[in-house]
Amino acid sequence: MYKLFFLLIAPLLIFACGNKTAGNKTADNNPVDTASNNPPVETKAPNSSYKPAFKGQTRAPGVKTTTPYEGKVLTDKLNSPWGITQLPDGRFLITQKEGTMRIATNTGELSEPITGLPPVVNAGQGGLLGVTIDPQFESNRMVYWAFSEKTPEGNLTAIAKGKLAANEKQIENATVIYRATPAYNGTLHYGGRILFDGKGNLFISTGERSDLQTRPQAQLLNSALGKVIRITTDGKPAAGNPFLNRNDARPELYSYGHRNVQSLAIHPATGDLWEAEFGPRGGDEVNRIEPGKNYGWATITYGIEYSGKKVGDGITQHEGMEQPVYYWDPVVSPSGMTFYSGDSIPEWKNNLFIGALSGTHIVRLVIDNNRVVGEERLLANEGQRFRAVTEGKDGALYAVTDGGRLYRIGRK
Ligand SMILES: [Ca+2]
């Protein structure tokens, strides 16, 4: 009761006193900013002593969802799910790391595993990864997915497409349309998200394969490692890609300088592509992706090596390299994400929701003018590694976890 009194009366008192503390000035103008004095959700010490490039780039003020909501476990019978996308009829198509897909109803009934996909390297961070469906799925039943493929030269992130059979038991005519070369003998940092760009092309994300040997390729335009890539549904470079006219660059590249991108989403109001990527020890990032730009890894980072040493020269800013919109130190390990475009929980509109693996929660970021102005942790008591989040047509969020759960997070 006292708190409520304080919230109602304090702004009046400040106003009446002529407000010498101007920091909270916008509080009455924008409901998003009412929490700008709240402490950040992160309370642990950072690994590095790096300073953010601008206010709010890390440890934004904590916010709290006010609409009553609940996270309900619909099933716990999935086997290491990785990607999730909604079908036109409201059910969900979900990949399992082992190399199969399942269909789940929005009450949690699961189909038998869907087979017929090319073999995957189900080891380390590899396996069957992200999935999306064709914008014309209702007429063509086409599905697109990312996976770890074994080749004679090593493993790589590959993209394939195929038709979901009428009986929903197989993928028919599975065809690999793109390979993010070079291959490498390792099982880490495959990236692996995939989504349509709104113009009929596919955005896909890769990783730099983790080792010091392959890491520099994130900066190289003649390598597909550590990139966001844009291709047609036939695997060709998309029209309008930023490096189409350069001899020294691969035409499928869209942005570069990434470490390991497991999150891609398009902002429902601006149409911009956003991504999140894993940092090393500290330095997980959220970026707004513009074509042709360099996102800095491994020249700039807010993280340090797992050994505790600095990465490269230990710098966080460099001419010609983009600053992350937001970063975490310590890490949360951001995997699949989505923007919320529904009306069911009004304060979530255009917020970004990210599955956190080591963080074992769902990150909610309130974004205003391409900056993060609030952060909340959802379902932090569940103890689950959240692998991916998508939005349902019913205005709820649906999330899968490494432990095999499918959650519905919606209005109570
Ligand atoms: Ca970066």
Q: Which features would summarize this protein structure in a list?
A:
412 residues; mainly beta; four-stranded antiparallel sheet; 2 helices
Explained architecture:
The protein is globular. It has a single domain, classed as Neuraminidase. It has a four-stranded antiparallel beta sheet with strand order 1-23-22-21, with no helix packed on it. 5% of the residues lie in helices and 35% in strands. Strand 18 and strand 19 form a beta hairpin. It is mainly beta and 412 residues long. The N terminus is likely disordered. Bound molecules: calcium ion (CA). Calcium ion (CA) binds next to loops.
Radius of gyration: 21 Å
Distance between the termini: 24 Å
Helix amount, in percent?
Answer: under 10%
Write out the distinct hetero groups bound to the structure: calcium ion
The CATH architecture name reads 6 Propeller
**In CATH, what is the homologous superfamily?**
TolB, C-terminal domain
What is the tally of helical segments? 2
Low-confidence stretches: 1-34
Query: CATH class, anyone?
Result: Mainly Beta
